[in-house]
Specification:
This protein is of the alpha/beta class. Helices cover 34% and strands 23% of the residues. Mean pLDDT is 86; it is low at 237-245 and 251-258.
C-alpha cells in the first residue's frame, strides 16, 4: 500500500483561523502560522489553507500568511480560495505554496485547469470539489465555498478535471463539514474508485476510526480534518510541549483572535462540541495499528 497522507486543513478568514459548521457559522480560533507550525511539529504530512471568503470577494488574501508559514514549516502547503487566473496561481506559488486548489473559477472556466496544469505541472494543480448530497442520492458540485449550487454532477466533474490535467482532488462534503458524524464514505468511494488521481477525503471526521474507514471503505489516498485537530488544542498549550505560549497561539497581534470558549462550553445550542479531539500523532498511531501505511 502507498503511504496515506494525513493533512491538516485550516480555514482562514482575514488574519484568523476559523471553524464553522457546514461551511457556515465561523468561530475564530487563532493565528494561522502558529497553528501550521504546531501541526508540522506534530507530524502532519501536508497543510491545506482555505480562504473561506475569497471566492465571494474574488480574491485570495493569504499571500502574507503563506510567506510567514513557509518560513517555519517544511511540508507541502496547498492554498485554496479565490484563485481565478494563471497570475493568481503564480503569485501563490511564489509566496511559498507547493500546490493550489481551484473550485469556483474552474467550474466557470474549466480551461483554467488545463492551462495551469500545462504551465505549472499537474503535480501542483488540485481540483477542490465541494459536494452536496441531493435527495436522489447523487451529488452536486457547489461553489463559493459551499454557498452556491451549480447543477454540475460531482462524479462527472471529477472525471472531467482529471482529463483537464489536475494531479489530485480535494473532496469536501458540505453536509458533513464540522459535524463530527464521520466522512461521507459513499461520496469518497464514488469518486476515488472512478478516477486515477489521488483523492483527499475531507469533512466530517469526529473520531480517530473515521480516518481508518475513509481509507479502507472509501479508498481515500489521503485524509484531512480541521475540527478534530483544532479542538485538541483547546487544552492549555503548555501541556503540548510547544515552543510558544497560549497567548501567541490564540491571540497573536489580532485582538479578535482566540475566541475558544465555545470549544470548551459547546458549539451553538449544543452543550458539547461535536468531535472527539485527537492529535495528528494519535490518528497516525491508530492507522498504523490498523495496518495502514502512514509516515512517521
Amino acid at each position: 500500500m502507498h503511504s496515506i497522507r494525513v493533512i491538516s486543513k485550516l480555514d482562514i478568514k482575514g488574519p484568523n483561523v476559523v471553524k464553522g459548521l457546514c461551511f457556515d457559522g465561523y468561530r475564530v480560533l487563532g493565528v494561522p502560522e502558529k497553528f501550521a507550525e504546531m501541526y508540522y511539529k506534530d507530524g502532519a504530512d501536508e497543510l491545506f489553507f482555505q480562504d473561506v471568503v475569497a471566492s465571494l470577494y474574488q480574491r485570495n488574501n493569504l499571500l502574507e500568511i503563506v510567506k510567514r508559514t513557509a518560513e517555519n514549516t517544511f511540508i507541502p502547503l496547498t492554498v485554496a480560495g479565490g484563485i481565478r487566473s494563471i497570475e493568481d496561481v503564480r503569485e501563490i506559488l511564489r509566496a511559498g505554496a507547493d500546490k493550489v486548489a481551484i473550485n469556483t473559477a474552474a467550474i466557470e472556466n474549466p480551461n483554467l485547469l488545463r492551462e495551469a496544469s500545462k504551465i505549472f505541472g499537474s503535480q501542483c494543480i488540485v481540483s477542490s470539489i465541494e459536494a452536496k448530497r441531493l435527495d436522489n442520492g447523487k451529488y452536486e458540485a457547489w461553489v463559493d465555498y459551499g454557498r452556491q449550487p451549480t447543477g454540475v454532477d460531482v462524479l462527472n466533474w471529477a472525471k472531467r478535471v482529471v482529463d483537464l490535467g489536475v494531479g489530485e482532488i480535494f473532496l469536501s462534503s458540505v453536509d458533513k463539514d464540522g459535524t463530527g458524524e464521520g466522512f461521507d464514505l459513499d461520496l469518497i468511494y464514488l469518486v476515488a474508485s472512478s478516477v486515477p488521481v489521488p483523492v483527499i477525503a475531507c469533512s466530517g471526521a469526529g473520531k480517530k476510526d473515521d480516518f481508518v474507514q475513509a481509507v479502507k471503505t472509501g479508498l481515500a489516498d489521503a485524509v484531512s480534518a480541521a475540527s478534530m485537530f483544532h479542538y485538541k488544542y483547546a487544552e492549555p498549550v503548555d501541556t503540548l510541549n510547544m515552543s510558544y505560549n497560549e497567548k501567541e497561539l490564540r491571540m497573536g497581534e489580532q485582538i479578535d483572535s482566540g475566541n475558544i470558549e465555545f470549544i470548551r462550553d459547546g458549539y451553538g445550542d449544543s452543550s458539547e462540541i461535536f468531535v472527539n479531539p485527537a492529535s495528528i500523532g494519535e490518528v497516525k498511531e491508530l492507522m498504523r495499528d490498523e495496518e495502514i501505511f502512514v509516515r512517521v
